Give the backbone structure.
Amino acid sequence: MGLEQLNFIDGQDPLTPTILRKPKDKIEMAIMRLQQFEPPEGYYLAFSGGKDSVVLLDLAKKAGVKSDAHYNLTTIDPPEVVQFIKTFREVKIERPEHTMCELIVKKGLPRRQGRWCCEELKERGGSGRVVLTGIRWLEAKGRTRRAHRGMVETCYRDRSKRFVHPIIDWTTDEVWQYIKDNHIRYCSLYDEGFERLGCILCPMVRNVASQIKRWPKITEALRRATYRYWERQTPGGQKFETAEDLWQWWLKRDQSRIAFQQEKMMFDSDD
Ligand code: SF4
């Protein structure tokens, strides 16, 4: 059964799907969801290279559904993640028209509450398609917090794009258990203590010092783009006295505000 037959009810409760047989466990439930919503042309699978997306890719194969997997380069991706993704022949790496640094020169630095880069770089693609993602509800104090968003939904920016999140109710432990039980490969950065594999110095990153140390070239490229952005501002109209002041302000992340923002999102993902 596809989305058209189901009329794609946004926010549909994944725990009461429109299927008759009761699933045995969350794995079976995820597989049933994948089969239930498969569109005739197959899914656009949004692959991030993180733990959730390797599970998603494996489940899509087990479910026997048609899909084409894509990774959208942002140009400030950790090189280790890109190398890992290149080992998946079935994942197409999509390059953007403009690099993150070119966009920063034009638009300024992305901020926690103005993450224009996700829309322009990371989440592009999938228009007119049913997009599979590995996003999950955020866990809080040992239980899963359910957001208002459901397992299926329509993109609010592009109404032709619809999402299915088959593992939305999985916990982080369940994701790792599945990886272990099924001998699935994952990016080496996790073994070094990284919990998320998003862009380098993303505004949602708290511990910038370790990223600056680990990826100095990308940090320097971002700093240079910040300087060029500042120089393009009307003389005297800049909010910061020097370009370096702007750069330092951007790096000074307010931990409590980031935690609050993440809490508000109520979703977990690899990014
Ligand atoms: S993950 Fe962060 S830096 Fe990367 S595109 Fe999204 S908001 Fe921007």
Summary: The longest helix spans residues 216-232. The two ends are 31 Å apart (CA to CA). Residues 45 and 108 are 30 Å apart (CA to CA).
